[in-house]
Amino acid sequence: MSEATSPDSEAHRTIQIPSLLTNSLRAVLDAFGEDIIQLRATGSIETTNGTFLENLRDYGVSWELTDQQAMSVDYERLPGPDGPANPLDETARQRLIEEIQARVDPAEPDVDGDLAVTSMTIRVSDQRLQEVTPAQSPEFDLRFVSDRAEPPAREPTKRRNLDRRLYDALGFKCHNLNLRTVIETETKYHQQSDGKYLSWGGPGDLRPQSPERLAIRINDHILPDAYGTLKPYRVIDDQVIELIEAEFDDGYRENAGPATSEGDE
Fold it and tell me: Which residues contact 141 (CB under 8 A, 6 or more apart)?
């Protein structure tokens, strides 16, 4: 095999990116709880009441009143003298879910209201990550950002969220939360180095830095089984980056029927 086409050459590289095949706030809160130190999410619900105007019914004249209610979360953990001043503890998470149910809950009785996460950072302490990095401590901040799910990831994403009715009932776009950075926490405060051991700018970034052993350990030990996966991206000649469908295995094994993907963005 020539240098230009060798999978191990600089011209043709495969990078593994840890990803969550969901952008559900409920799923994120269940999976990470108090480990979340930054979170942004949005959601809305719209109802329309309409009627024909009786004196102009024969002319097809109608009147509509549309009511939209929107909700957003812009959370950042604040320091306090005895720990975080505003941790996302069980009480805070329950209050948040109750507000979502009260304000943006859909009319369908079998669907729970939810918000779409746009970005999230979790803080974890795990020596297994330290072992495969130059880090001097086991605490890391992992930042995830919502991206449109690529075609190979769309049906797996829909299957994993089938019971949440995100797409047909709540109007979510089919997005994944892809890992953007892994930073050793101590370096943020001591400025010894940038402490960045994984870095990816998103689907258009042609120079991702994602050490395979670190990516595998994050997927195996940090991400929840229900949504976590590794996305294999191929970078060709530093000009094209694509998710490799033949190598993408989302690990979903339940006998769930496929969901339609037309019209998603």
Answer: 37, 121, 122, 123, 181, 182, 183, 185, 188
